Amino acid sequence: MSTTANNNYAPPRSRLADPAAPIEFDLASRGSRFGAVTIDGLIFGTPWLVLAVSELSSIGVAGAPTNAFAIWSSLWRHLGPRGYVCLSIELVLILITAALVHQNAQTIGKKVCGIKVARVDGSRATLTRIFFLRYLPGSILRLVPVLAYVYGLADPLFIFGEPRRCIHDYIAGTIVIRA
Questions:
Q1: Angle subtended at Cα 153 by Cα 147 and Cα 154, rounded to the nearest 5 degrees
Q2: Tens digit of pLDDT for each residue in 168-178?
Q3: End-to-end distance of the chain based on CA atoms, in angstroms?
Q4: Looking only at Cα atoms, what is the longest distance across the chain?
Q5: DSSP letters along 45-89, please?
Q6: DSSP state of 132
Q7: What DSSP assignment string belongs to 138-159?
Q8: What's the rounded Cα separation, in Å, for the pair 168 and 175?
Q9: C-alpha torsion sign, points 129, 132, 137, 138
Q10: pLDDT, tens digit only, all 179 positions of the chain
Q11: Cα–Cα distance between 37 and 83 in angstroms, integer?
Q12: Angle CA(138)–CA(142)–CA(143) in degrees, nearest 5?
């Protein structure tokens, strides 16, 4: 009348988690990731946009350069006090972002959208991993003329795959989850 649970002579049994089973996370939505990158782009791009508009308006429409490279090289040649203000603003934004990434693995945009970066195994993503593996390789690729266009197009398109990971996520071994 005894069951195996009460059988003192039965072999021991334990429930173990399958180490090969994938760990489930609440992945960030594509919309929240798009919102975060848009917010970050606006925050970091606005000072330079203001500088570009003010400098080009002072040059005049007739003397204005026509392509992006000529515009930025013109701005660097005529940087002036407004340019140094923009550089100062950018440095402050970089320091704030680095502090947020170090503290919570979130940029300003990710914090606003309630998402953060984590390693694929769920552990905390460090500032060095995020900077050197997630952002730096893409920044270097964007300096190569043809690769800049290919990488710039392909990287965000990878988010439409099932794992919702961009190329920079695969390079860094990261995922973006809800905070």
A1: 85
A2: 999 999 999 99
A3: 52
A4: 99
A5: HHHHHHHHHHHHHHH-STT--SSHHHHHHHHHHT-HHHHHHHHHH
A6: I
A7: HHHHTTSHHHHHHHHHHHHHGG
A8: 10
A9: positive
A10: 545 567 778 787 777 665 555 566 799 999 999 999 999 999 998 987 887 777 666 655 555 555 666 666 666 666 667 777 878 888 999 999 999 999 999 999 999 999 999 999 989 999 999 999 999 999 898 888 888 899 999 999 999 999 999 999 999 999 999 99
A11: 24
A12: 125
pLDDT for 60-101, tens place per residue? 555 555 566 666 666 666 666 777 787 888 899 999 999 999
CB 67 within 8 A of CB 77: no
Domain regions of the chain by residue span: 30-178
Our measurement of the distance from residue 111's CA atom to the centroid of its chain's CA atoms, rounded to an integer in Å, reads 12
Helix, strand or coil for residue 167?
helix
